[in-house]
Amino acid sequence: MVVFRSEELDLELSFSDNVIHELQKYRQTGAKLETGGMLFTSSLVSNVVDIDLISSASDLDVRKRFGFIPNKRTAQTMIDKNYKNGFYYIGDWHTHPELSPSPSTQDLKTIKSLFRKSKHDLTFFVILILCQSNSFKNSYVALADGRIVHKCKVKTLL
After folding, report:
1. Are 37 and 69 in contact (CB under 8 A)?
2. Distance CA 113, CA 146 (A)
3. Beta strands in the chain (DSSP E)
4. Residue 152, Cβ neighbours under 10 Å: how many?
5. ∠ CA 36-68-81, rounded to 5°
6. What would the pLDDT profile of 34-87 be if each residue is shown by its tens digit?
7. Nearest to residue 83, comparing CAs of 53, 48, 47, 127?
8. Fold of 2-154
9. Which of 105, 100, 80, 89 minimizes the C-alpha distance to 52?
10. What is the pTM of this model?
């Protein structure tokens, strides 16, 4: 398990070993194209949010070496399906071909826009940029509230 924390929002995001293992399959190594998907949780009632489920890219998504654009219709269908099964959409993930990724201007613009345009009762959306390295802890994780993006740090367990 890896936990990322936002001090500003007093929130933690917990990624289980199973979710990390699934995400690691998509690391952008070699000549692979960017890929991505969505992040889901089964509970929104505490300041610790467990990422319980992820989706992966569909055949209708646009994948490039330095870009990933999900198909909106396919994404909404996945959100609706998972909601019926008790999972809440809380953000997106995608890959970068970097050992320690940082978001592009477009990445930040997109997550803020998604937050503002989506119908939800959340105080944030998650953006995860999966690193190229074997260490999931080097990934970029942030919480966006529509205006500000709050970068999360790996929580060190004592």
Report:
1. no
2. 6
3. 2-6, 11-15, 36-41, 48-51, 53-54, 62-64, 67-69, 88-95, 125-130, 140-144, 149-151, 153-154
4. 23
5. 45
6. 999 999 999 988 899 999 999 999 999 999 999 999 999 999 999 999 999 999
7. 53
8. Cytidine Deaminase; domain 2 (3.40.140)
9. 89
10. 0.95
